[in-house]
Each structure stands twice: as C-alpha cells, then as structure tokens.
Specification:
This protein has helices at 6-21, 25-49, 54-76, 80-105. It has 106 residues and is mostly helical. It is elongated and about 40 Å long.
C-alpha cells in the first residue's frame, strides 16, 4: 500500500460525510462497510509494521480506535450529522497527522 494512499482515503471519507449530511445515509454506510473498514485495517497494519517507536505506534492506534468508536456511537444514535463531523473533521485530521508521522520515516 502506497503511503496510506492518503488522498484517495480522505476523498472517500469526505464523500461519505457528504452522503450522511444530505440524507443518503445508506450510501454512506455502505461505503464505510465496503471501502473504509478495509482501509482502516490496512492502516493499522502499516502503523504496526512501521519504524515508529512502540509508544508512538500505541498512541496512534489508540487515537484511531477512539475516533472509530465515536463514529460508531454516532451511528448507533442515528446522528448522521455528528457521524459526518467525526468522519470529515476528526478522522481526516487524524489521518493527515498519521501520514505526516509516517512521512518523517522516509
């Protein structure tokens, strides 16, 4: 996987958030299920296999897990705008920060 393929993943997350905001939650949820979940698993593996210090790896994985938990909680409440916010702002910012950390290794 190219360095997280950040642009494609972020673009997809923004599209998912937009779907949720305009009432197309089924489309957004299917995209998360079919695309984003797989990418997050890949991201976790990239972090685990990176040359980052163990403490940094653990912190990044914890932040990612927390962000995904908040998204899941919003989904359970059927809070589509809240879910979109977590995806488009919090998760995108976290992915950009992770990518920056990973870029420092290369």
């Amino acid at each position: 996987m190219e360095m997280l393929a950040e642009d494609a993943l972020i673009e997809q997350l923004i599209n998912i958030g937009n779907d949720l905001r305009i009432g197309r939650e089924m489309e957004g949820l299917m995209e998360i299920k079919n695309y984003a979940n797989e990418r997050f698993l890949e991201l976790g593996e990239v972090i685990k296999q990176s040359e980052l210090q163990a403490q940094v790896q653990t912190s990044l994985l914890a932040l990612l897990t927390n962000a995904l938990l908040r998204i899941t909680e919003a989904h359970e409440r059927r809070d589509w705008c809240g879910m979109a916010d977590y995806i488009q702002y919090d998760l995108v910012a976290l992915l950009q920060a992770i990518n920056t950390k990973m870029d420092l290794l290369t």
